[in-house]
Amino acid sequence: MRSKVTVVGAGNVGATTAQRIHQLGYADVVLVDVVEDLPQGKSLDMLESGPVTGTDALITGSNGYEESAGSDVVVITAGIARRPGMSRDDLLLTNMRITSAVTEEVVKHSPDCIILAVTNPLDAMVQNIFQSSGFPRNRVFGMAGVLDTARYRTFIARELNVSVDDVQAMVLGGHGDDMVPLVRYTTVGCIPLTELLSQDRIDSIVQRTRDGGGEIVALLKQGSAFYAPSAAITQMVQAILLDRKRILPGCAYLEGEYGIDGLCVGVPVKIGGGGMEQVIEISLTDEEHAALRSSAASVQELVDVMASAKAEAG
Ligand code: A3D
């Protein structure tokens, strides 16, 4: 029996994610969106690629949640994407309302699922989905660090003209301008990055990583990145479905780890069949720790804005 994965939001990220997961062949996929006929059309198109790509997995589109019932994993990409000149904060309250409504349906139809949140602003949406779901923290977490790390690894591999496979790295913190690439833990074929590149070059790669989302938005003119994001989501979904126990950066609800309590922040986690099975605590220098705290403070500001809006709405 194949696993079942629902992807909510059939836009650029959701549809590309559905395509990647469907093509793996070991999970049936349900694609949900509010736009009439859109998820049905995209799913049928993907289903018809099966004979060519060699997958027997099913993929179905829907404007409701009945078809999604009993999903093992639900990926939430529903929301409004960031447009040029728009800050992540502008998206906050609209996407909060969208993700709250989506979560209610997901919990009703798939009470045992693992939710992977993707909608921006990521950390705040993970917090909102976690609180709205009532699920334990291992079953609600977010994708951002795998994407940020992929960008960082790409820039390092291109700079040194080496395989991306040999660049090991981890980006922590919130998915925003104050993310925390851990240069001290970055290695290339086991060699510390600091032995291979000057501080100036490292600083410029770190800055380009921080600006990575904006760089794509500026080039695309409309919409935001989706190829690398969907690859990152698929890696996390695979880690769950195949119980791989991968150590990856993920946005998790912290309960005192790293001195942060009651907030969703990007940290190293173990991902397997149980979802976010463990928060991995690594030692940080005072400077790295201060950067993580400052990143968490930015997330807290958004969480406070959401709490005020919810209180006002009664
Ligand atoms: P887009 O192509 O606009 O797709 C969003 C889809 O969500 C649209 O098809 C909408 O119709 C749909 N939608 C809106 N409201 C609902 C609802 N209530 N129920 C179901 N579907 C709904 O955007 P995108 O696919 O490019 O991006 C999706 C989200 O992911 C945005 O919030 C992005 O900012 C975010 N994103 C996050 C990352 C991270 O690394 C965290 C990366 C890329 C995109």
TrEMBL record:
Keyword Oxidoreductase part of the UniProt annotation: yes
Binding, NAD(+): 9-14, 33, 95, 118-120
Keyword NAD found: yes
Source taxon at top rank: Eukaryota
GO biological process, one term: lactate metabolic process
Gene Ontology MF terms: L-lactate dehydrogenase (NAD+) activity
InterPro entries assigned to the protein according to its UniProt record, in alphabetical order: L-lactate/malate_DH (IPR001557), Lactate/malate_DH_C (IPR022383), Lactate/malate_DH_N (IPR001236), Lactate_DH/Glyco_Ohase_4_C (IPR015955), Malate_DH_type3 (IPR011275), NAD(P)-bd_dom_sf (IPR036291)
Protein name: L-lactate dehydrogenase
Organism: Geodia barretti
